[in-house]
Design goal:
The complex is a heterodimer of chains A (163) and B (796).
Chain A lengths: L4 E8 L2 E8 L4 H8 L18 E4 L2 E4 L12 E3 L13 H9 L8 H14 L5 H7 L11 H18 L1
Parallel strand pairs in A: 1-5
Antiparallel strand pairs in A: 1-2, 3-4, 3-5
Helix pairs in contact in A: 2-5, 4-5
Chain B lengths: L14 H5 L16 E7 L5 E7 L1 H4 L4 E5 L34 E2 L5 E7 L2 H9 L2 E6 L6 H6 L12 E8 L3 H7 L2 E9 L11 E7 L4 E6 L4 H12 L6 E4 L16 H13 L3 E4 L2 H7 L6 E9 L5 E11 L9 H9 L8 E9 L14 H19 L3 H8 L8 E6 L5 E4 L4 H12 L4 H10 L3 E13 L5 E7 L5 E5 L8 H13 L6 E5 L16 H28 L6 E4 L2 E4 L2 E7 H7 L36 E6 L5 E13 L6 E11 L6 H21 L31 E4 L22 H13 L5 E2 L3 H14 L2
Parallel strand pairs in B: 1-12, 8-29, 10-11, 14-15, 20-21, 27-28
Antiparallel strand pairs in B: 1-5, 2-4, 2-6, 3-5, 7-15, 8-13, 9-10, 9-12, 13-14, 16-17, 18-26, 19-20, 19-25, 22-23, 23-24, 26-27
Classes of the chains: A alpha+beta (163), B alpha+beta (796).
InterPro entries (chain A): 2Fe-2S-bd, 2Fe-2S-bd_dom_sf, 2Fe-2S_ferredoxin-like_sf, 2Fe-2S_ferredoxin-type, 2Fe2S_fd_BS, Beta-grasp_dom_sf, Diverse_Oxidoreductases
Organism (chain A): Nocardioides szechwanensis
Pfam families (chain A): Fer2, Fer2_2
Chain lengths: 163, 796
């Protein structure tokens, strides 16, 4: 039996893509395998680790817990869409580089998207709020120490921009 | 003059691609609709005979290209997987088949392999395979393995894979003569590496050149290459293994070949298509490897100062269903248990036991956390018995700085004498006491008690053999552009090798850091290598790269000396330019030296005209001198006599809630000595990560098997890895830099250190807070709660 394919238009990082996918295709798989946006990583496929976090209309969602067909009409942002078009790293990305906020880099895209949304909601988090902001993502390399520093550094960089 | 980069926290070069989502992990390779995807049928039973496998329903499924069971395998593929590290004491080593033959011995063992258009279709097909089993009674846990009422393998009596003993003298006589004696019964649970990226393998067969390319998320590309060639009947030259970016390893990816690491290449060759296997998280839990599980019995004899006169250790190590990685983990436990101490007499006996569970191979620390737990629990027990401060008892047992090299009188995991090269344990102890506030703690405790709060302090010391052999190599190539391309064969899983190795090359060669590009784990670039494990990359490849850069430099100076008509001794290389010291006008850049190093017949651009035979060299001599080779390159290998021994101490202050038994970390301190630091930022990052895994192992993580051998918590929902909310808010780190005399840079390994003393240090602190003996790890709040109840009953 051939699977029924559905026409889907996904808007990712400001670009529209037309796809034909089965209803069961996960958004994470559609992004990675159909669109070649392999920056979004899959660490558990049950919504716990947060590596696959992307922004949907600016809000963090687990791409492994969502079907591609459910993402129609949403403005999606993946890690590939965080830097400026000229290649300049975003404040959050820059802060990660400066603070050694990543090691193997596998969980990093999920942290970057999560923190990007978090700092948009709360541009000047307290230390505890900075920790809370990343409390839903797993990292096995860094012990989170430098990720917390990166959140605080990104807030600093952001404050520098607006002043 | 450029400043030395060794010792500076240079920002990582690899971060740029990771931060942009441009890393390339195994599952990111061959993203193409024509790539086929594999899925594996795994045993749902811990112990069963396979009566029949019916694949009839699968063959007709649209999009399915192959369905294989054991019966489809031939030649070397039909033989058991290799026993990677044989040992004379491993009298009953057993390994599994790529696909189960007749019997399965753990839930998760591979039975059938399906290749289809995509993973969804492949999983559908796996669901249609019908297997009938005859169930056999499973052996789960160390107690059941020791009881041996049931056997995992019929031909392994007592479930004992190996029994090994080492001693340094007559322990019974020393014990009998000791003024004080104590015994301890200890338990450490199973845990696992759990890298965020699971296993992945991609293979492509190129029929035009009869060559196989394999990408694998492995810690040893040369190991995978060798076994793929043997199993597929190919010449080594026909197989390339490329390790792409790897999303963490922590040990589990050193084991090889996984069944899929052979089946994917075989499928690619058979089907003539690119084939990919990417495991899911459940597969990672049930079909890779775990570690840690041990039961220990310790008898110790000591004098009035707490000096160890006799240490007699027995332990039972659960190695799961198979032993591909030999006895490495229990041997390390049995030898590294001694830490920084020097008992008068030591005897250790272990049994490595089969159970019907996932096999056990090294996880960061590789047996050391268990050994450290045994030794440090013993130290605390001695202190309690004598009413002494825990640091004093440790101090009287330390090997002193003037006693190195110190021979422990044992044989280490590499078959060499266990000889510590250098260290300064008394200095570390002073540092850790200052860092945690050991002497001020009684006042803090009193202050907390006044608020109705209960706190405890703990300390644990370890020594870690790092940089284990046999060797690593490096190739440094200065291109005519002046760019420096470096290759070393071991692999990278996030340690920042591209940065630290570039630091070493820039320092030694005198080129610009930005001009260095480092490649690891690609057999096309460096076919001779061992792999990344045992905190060995910086020591082994770092040393090899340093030596190879030195060779390239010597050659550059020789060629430049001729061009500049100067003596090599008068030359320097700074920022990629060779110049005569004190006369900067007389200079030549490394790119031009590279041009001159390779006499040409055919020019290919402006620069290369300078190297054609009518423009370069003495017409009276051969263009390439007899003892030279063309090209500005250096290759060298580093193969040390033995391991180098890093060391450190951790201390923690915890608060235990009197009502809920919740355990909170108030302060965590680390003193760490890995010799000379290449990049302190990266070393501290390694410590941070190790501590977090240690917290997980001490307080949260365990593999929960039921009596039928089902792993009950095979997901991130149920296997509790620390989030940021579980790790210390800040880790105080102080370094000691006792150089290793064994390598040119004086470095020691740093990768595993952070995790080694965690279980021990938390046990020490919780015991101190609660005044209840802590003998088993991990300890959850509910376990502590029950421990309180039991203890209250036992001590009315």
């Amino acid at each position: 039996m051939t699977e029924e394919l559905l026409e889907v238009r996904l808007r990712v990082n400001g670009v529209a893509h037309d796809l034909r996918v089965p209803a069961r295709r996960l958004l994470s798989d559609a992004l990675r395998h159909d669109l070649g946006l392999t920056g979004t990583h899959v660490g558990c496929e049950h919504g716990v680790c947060g590596a696959c976090t992307v922004l949907a209309d600016g809000r963090p969602v687990r791409a492994c817990l969502m079907f591609a067909v459910s993402a129609v009409g949403l403005e999606l942002t993946t890690v590939e869409g965080l830097a400026d078009v000229d290649g300049t790293l975003s404040n959050v990305q820059q802060a990660f580089a400066e603070c050694h906020g990543l090691q193997c880099g596998f969980c990093t895209p999920g942290f970057l998207t999560t923190i990007t949304a978090g700092l948009r909601d709360n541009p000047q988090p307290t230390h505890d709020e900075a920790r809370d902001m990343i409390a839903g993502n797993l990292c096995r390399c860094t012990g989170y120490q430098n990720i917390v520093k990166a959140v605080e550094r990104a807030a600093e960089l952001g404050a520098g921009e607006t002043s | 003059m450029t400043t030395k980069l060794m010792g500076t926290g240079v920002q990582r070069v690899e971060d740029q691609r990771f931060l942009r989502g441009l890393g390339r992990y195994a599952d990111d390779v061959a993203v193409d609709p024509s790539t086929l995807h594999a899925a594996v049928l795994r045993s749902p039973h811990a112990h069963a005979r396979i009566v029949d496998i019916d694949v009839a329903d699968v063959l007709d499924v649209e999009g399915v290209h192959a369905v294989w069971t054991y019966d489809d395998l031939t030649g070397p593929m039909a033989e058991p997987l290799p026993l990677l590290i044989p040992h004379p004491m491993l009298t009953h080593g057993r390994t599994q088949y790529a696909l189960a033959k007749d019997e399965v011995n753990y839930v998760g063992e591979a039975i059938a392999f399906v290749v289809a258009d995509d993973r969804y279709v492949a999983e559908d097909a796996v669901g249609k395979i019908k297997v009938s089993y005859e169930l056999l009674p499973p052996v789960v846990g160390i107690d059941a393995a020791r009881a041996a009422d049931r056997l995992v393998h019929d031909d392994v009596p007592g479930n004992v894979g190996a029994r090994m003993e080492q001693n340094t003298g007559d322990v019974q006589a020393a014990m009998a003569a000791a003024p004080h004696r104590l015994t301890l019964d200890l338990t450490v649970e199973r845990s696992a590496c759990m890298p965020m990226e699971g296993r992945g393998t991609v293979a492509r067969w190129d029929p035009d050149i009869d060559r196989l390319q394999v990408w694998s998320s492995t810690q040893t590309s040369t190991g995978v290459r060798a076994v793929v060639a043997v199993k597929l009947g190919l010449d080594l030259r026909q197989v390339d293994v490329i390790t792409p970016d790897v999303g963490g390893g922590f040990g589990v990816k050193i084991n090889h070949p996984w069944p899929e690491e052979l089946l994917v290449p075989l499928a690619a060759r058979t089907l003539g298509r690119t084939v990919k296997f990417t495991e899911d998280r459940r597969e990672h839990f049930i079909s890779t490897a775990h570690e840690r599980g041990q039961v220990q019995y310790i008898e110790v004899g000591f004098d009035d100062d707490g000096r160890l006169l006799a240490l007699d250790v027995k332990f039972w190590h659960d190695h799961g269903a198979y032993t591909p990685y030999g006895l490495i983990v229990p041997i390390i436990t049995s030898t590294q248990l001694l830490g920084p101490y020097k008992p008068e007499v030591y005897r250790v006996v272990f049994e490595s036991l089969y159970t019907n569970t996932v096999m056990v191979t090294p996880y960061r620390g590789a047996g050391r956390p268990q050994g450290c737990f045994a030794m440090e629990r013993t130290m605390d027990a001695i202190a309690a018995e004598l009413g002494k401060d825990r640091t004093e008892v440790r101090a009287v047992n330390f090997i002193q700085p003037d006693e190195f090299p110190f021979e422990q009188g044992l044989v280490f995991q590499d078959g060499r004498e266990l000889t510590y090269d250098s260290g300064d344990y008394p200095a570390s102890l002073e540092k850790i006491k200052a860092l945690i506030g050991w002497d001020e703690f009684p006042a803090f405790r009193a202050e907390m008690a006044a608020e109705g709060r209960q706190v405890g302090i703990g300390l644990a010391c370890y020594v870690e053999g790092t940089g284990v052999g046999p060797y690593e190599g490096a190739h440094v190539h200065v291109e005519t552009s002046g760019k420096v391309k470096v290759a070393t064969g071991l692999t990278t899983q996030g340690q920042g090798h591209a940065t630290v190795f570039a630091q070493l090359v820039a320092d030694e060669l005198g080129c610009r850091f930005e001009d260095v590009e480092v490649v690891t784990g690609d057999t096309r670039r460096m076919p001779y290598a061992v792999g990344t494990f045992a905190s060995r990359a910086a020591v082994m490849s770092g040393s090899a790269i340093h030596l190879a850069a030195k060779r390239a430099k010597e050659k550059a100076l020789k060629i430049a000396a001729e061009a500049l008509e100067a003596s090599p001794d008068d030359l320097q290389i700074v920022d990629g330019v060779v110049s005569v010291k004190g006369s900067p006008g007389s200079s030549i850049d490394l790119g031009t030296v590279a041009v001159l190093s390779n006499p040409l017949r055919y020019a290919f651009d402006e620069a290369s005209k300078a190297a054609t035979q009518f423009t370069v060299g003495d017409p009276g001599k051969p263009p390439v001198a007899e003892d030279e080779e063309p090209g500005l390159e250096g290759t060298d290998f580093y193969s040390p006599e033995r391991s180098t021994f890093a060391s450190g101490m951790h201390a923690v202050i915890v608060e235990t809630d009197p009502l809920t038994a919740e355990i909170r970390i108030l302060k965590y301190a680390v003193v760490h000595d890995c010799g000379k630091l290449i990049n302190p930022m990266i070393v501290e990052g390694q410590i941070h990560g190790g501590v977090a895994q240690g917290v997980g192992g001490a307080l949260y993580e365990r593999m929960v098997y039921d009596e039928s051998g089902q792993l009950l918590n095979a997901s991130f929902m149920d296997f509790l890895m620390p989030y940021v909310t579980e790790v210390p808010d800040g880790i105080d780190i102080d370094h000691l830099e006792t150089p290793s005399p064994l390598n040119p840079l004086g470095i020691k390994g740093a990768g595993e250190a952070g995790v080694i003393p965690s279980a021990a240090v938390f046990a020490s602190a919780i015991e101190d807070a609660e005044s209840i003996p802590i003998t088993a790890m991990p300890i959850s709040p509910s376990e502590l709660f029950h421990l309180r109840l039991t203890h209250a009953e036992e001590t009315p």
